[in-house]
Design goal:
Radius of gyration: 22 Å
Strand content: 15-25%
Shape: globular
Helix content: 25-40%
Largest sheet: 7 strands, mixed
Bound molecules: flavin-adenine dinucleotide
């Protein structure tokens, strides 16, 4: 008899979400996490004595409200902080554009740049919210089978189709037309202010090996609508950093009866008669289960954990073509005080800085930053997505001091010259120099810094190719194609082996949805005695 019903490889937030649902369904569930702490890319670490920061992801995706409610996460300590500001976009000419959650307030700020854009923004945001309502059911849906769609799948898609018809001609047309467009074109159709165009476009390329002129980058923006109903990326934080989210999930999983083992790296998924039966850990221990669920990314799962002889050559070649070239890095900084950003003055400066801070003032800047990546170098003028979470969460830094989390794009996984280990300090200096153009006093405030290169993302945090989303989220790796065509339903060619991470639909971001969707399919298979 197998020792467990379920083994989950990886204690990232999706693995933990799946563990909660599976354990609540009465299945004996064991989570095996290779690192000493669970949480994956949703963790908080001490970056300097007394300073804690979300090491990798810094703002939540947003987390699915359904997951939060189903798993009672508030009861397990989850406290989401949502500042009024979504993003403050900085410009080298000392002007800044503050986009609030509230559309009318954001439009008021845009009015300082262009009355035309202020009007367009209101229509853009309204259209986005409407389109988002149509697309959002897709996120919590298992993508339909292309070969043999079931009745329920056809029914669910039919409901989305009906909602689509309800959009009206204008928004229907927009939705169909926007998906394949370059996000730079989309932003230019709506707005004349470069800073606003670039701030909107940045969301379409977040985490992608793509610039704003790359075809299909509007998809990222549309997906944002599905998850959040707002064209501007969310800035919701978790009290205690994102590690507090995965701690709440871990507590919920334990209370539902799951077990979590940290420091337990799976080296091999063993099979018998085409069925996954057990895992082998580093150190040689073997643990059996009726089903194995991988929260590791698809490349790791299919190309490292499974013996290739167990996979069909056509499937293997598709898995090898799954794209995971990352281009992001992180610099987390402990600060002795709040930096002064040029053009962000007055009594409301701290409030304006409490959401995300965007550096990437125009479309050409973003595209040039991507150019560097394309040719194997990090950009000296990268796109930066910055948060100062200690402004709204005093638990992260000593009084009067701050932590700053700097997401850096574009920094390619593969460097043409040298390697990440020898160039990490030089890279971090270059990012700080760029920051200093917008916050001139920052250098004297820095007490300590943590540098996370794309190679660290792979080697320390287990992300193949350093890709923050477990793989590109382009049309060919999306929805029924995620991770691979024919395998978007969380099942794999090996019986009793499932995927539940960001490499499955609906993809990356701290949402919990891949984990929840996968758990639903696994429970269905258990109930139908297919496992
Ligand atoms: C630098 C960075 C910034 C980001 N910023 C944001 C953001 O601001 N907002 C947002 O919503 N999203 C952001 N993301 C994306 C988001 O963090 C990911 O999409 C999300 O964490 C994926 O969750 P997951 O549970 O699927 O996988 P992961 O978080 O990657 O977890 C997978 C887990 O599996 C473990 N594992 C892998 N292999 C094995 C093995 N062989 N044995 C045992 N365990 C194994 C890993 O150690 C890891 O803990 C960011 C990501 C990065 C890297």
């Amino acid at each position: 008899m197998p020792e467990h019903d379920i083994i989950i490889i990886g204690g990232g937030h999706n693995g933990l979400v799946a563990a909660c649902y599976l354990a609540k369904a009465g299945l004996k569930t064991l989570v095996l996490e290779r690192r000493e702490i669970a949480g994956g890319a949703s963790i908080t670490e001490e970056i300097h004595p007394g300073f804690h920061c979300s090491t990798l992801a810094h703002a939540v995706g947003p987390i699915s409200p359904q997951v939060v409610a189903d798993l009672n996460l508030s009861q397990f300590g989850l406290e989401v902080i949502t500042p009024e500001v979504r993003v403050l976009a900085l410009s080298p000419d000392n002007r800044s554009l503050c986009l609030y959650n509230e559309t009318a307030r954001a439009a008021g700020e845009i009015e300082n740049f262009s009355s035309k854009d202020a009007k367009s923004y209101t229509e853009f945001a309204t259209s986005f919210a409407r389109i988002g309502r149509v697309l959002s059911p897709l996120a919590s849906m298992t993508p339909p089978s292309l070969d043999k769609p079931g009745a329920a799948e056809i029914w669910n898609l039919g409901k989305v189709g009906l909602a689509f018809r309800g959009l009206g001609k204008k928004d229907e047309y927009r939705l169909l037309r926007w998906g394949p467009m370059a996000v730079a074109d989309l932003a230019a159709e709506w707005f004349e202010t470069e800073l606003l165009r670039a701030t909107v476009a940045a969301r379409g390329i977040f985490g992608a090996f793509a610039g704003p002129w790359s075809a299909g980058t509007s998809l990222g923006l549309l997906w944002q609508a599905a998850l959040d109903g707002n064209p501007i990326g969310p800035s919701s934080f978790v009290k205690g950093g994102l590690g507090a989210f995965t701690q709440a999930l871990a507590s919920a999983a334990l209370s539902a009866g799951a077990q979590i083992r940290a420091g337990a790296e799976v080296l091999r998924i063993e099979t018998a008669e085409d069925k996954a039966t057990k895992v082998m850990l580093k150190g040689g221990e073997e643990i059996s289960a009726r089903a194995i669920v991988s929260n590791a990314d698809p490349r790791t799962t299919f190309l490292r954990l499974i013996d290739p002889v167990n996979l069909d050559p056509t499937f293997l070649s598709k898995a090898r073509n799954y794209r995971t070239t990352g281009t992001a890095a992180k610099i987390n900084v402990a600060l002795s005080g709040l930096p002064s950003f040029s053009g962000v003055n007055g009594g409301d400066a701290a409030a304006k800085l409490s959401g995300r801070i965007h550096i990437g003032p125009d479309i050409d800047y973003l595209e040039r930053a991507f150019d560097a990546s394309k040719y194997g170098d990090y950009s000296p003028e990268p796109y930066l997505d910055i948060t100062i979470p200690s402004l709204s969460d005093s638990t992260l830094a000593p009084a009067g001091k701050h932590v700053m989390s700097v997401y850096v794009q574009f920094a390619p996984y593969k460097l043409k010259e040298g390697d990440w280990n020898s160039r990490r300090e030089e890279f971090a200096d270059s990012v700080v120099n760029q920051l200093a153009r917008y916050a001139p006093d920052i250098k004297r405030l820095i007490l300590g810094r943590q540098i996370v290169t794309p190679l660290d993302l792979e080697q320390i945090y287990g992300l193949s190719g350093g890709h923050i989303h477990h793989g590109e989220q382009t049309l060919d790796q999306f929805f029924t194609f995620r991770p691979l065509i024919g395998w978007a339903q969380y099942r794999t060619p090996i019986k009793a082996l499932y995927l539940c991470g960001a490499g499955t639909h609906p993809g990356g971001g701290i949402t919990g949805m891949p984990g929840a969707n996968a758990a639903r399919e696994i429970i269905r298979d258990f109930r139908a005695r297919k496992v």
